[in-house]
Amino acid sequence: MSAGAPTSLPRRYAAWSLDAAAITVVVVALLHRRLCAGLAACGEALDALSLAMAGTMADAADRGIAPAALARTWFTDPALHAAVGQLSFAVSAWLLPPMLAFALLALVWFAGFEGSRWQATPGKRLLGLRVVDDDGLPPSPARAALRQAAGLLSWASLNIGHALAGLAPRHQALHDRIAGTHVVRIDARPMALPVRLWLALQLPACFLLLAWLMHAVDRSVTAALDATLGL
């Protein structure tokens, strides 16, 4: 029997997000120059795509082409295809290295901390959580590593594997079931106000990021149109 009570999904997510934020800071610090260069390359590729689209739109306006015909032109325009390919390559080159670095560091981070005498990452410790095996004992380093490797299946299942942790009586995510582990709560106190604020601000932060990206695209397209039409 596990030593400790099952924990809620919000508390588990809060602990994970705190750890993820710490890992992200490390990744950004290590790859800062590469990320800045990649972001600049993405901006240049977006500008090139915007110019290509603006040129096609200006030509269509001069020739009186209907919007439906313009859409078909976009699908067949080799210049646009090349610009889209350039933007896709730039975004991939920008995102893949930090994503890979995050995944590798997270594997070491979670497996190392949870397989240690702490039985928990810093985020879990902050929220009074601990990882135990099915007998309520500390997980071995090998079991902790297996838990993290199996976590790929929880992500690959579109987080259905994580959602299983909310089902009684086992309260085990898919990777917990595979590794024979539980996440238990050893601190009965509610989450502190700063942690609850941290959770509450994440959704607005995502919307702000999306709005910033849409604004950047709109600004690029508008600038390209102005340059093409001579405004």
How would you describe this structure to a colleague?
The chain has helices at 9-30, 32-63, 67-76, 78-114, 122-126, 141-156, 160-163, 174-179, 193-229, and strands at residues 5-6, 129-133, 181-185. The chain is elongated. The mean pLDDT is 85. The protein has a three-stranded antiparallel β-sheet with strand order 1-3-2. The protein starts with a strand and ends with a helix. 73% of the residues lie in helices and 5% in strands. The protein is built from nine helices and three strands. Helix 2 packs across helix 3 (67-76), helix 2 runs antiparallel to helix 4 (78-114) and helix 4 runs antiparallel to helix 6. It has 231 residues and is mainly alpha-helical.
Task: List key phrases describing it.
3 strands, elongated, 9 helices, 231 residues, 5% strand
Uncertain residue segments: none
Helix-and-strand structural type = mainly alpha
C-alpha end-to-end distance: 73 Å
Shape: elongated
**How many strand segments?**
3
Helix content: over 70%
Write the layout of secondary structure elements.
Layout: E1 5-6, H1 9-30, H2 32-63, H3 67-76, H4 78-114, H5 122-126, E2 129-133, H6 141-156, H7 160-163, H8 174-179, E3 181-185, H9 193-229
Antiparallel strand pairs: 1-3, 2-3
Helix pairs in contact: 1-4, 2-3, 2-4, 2-9, 4-6
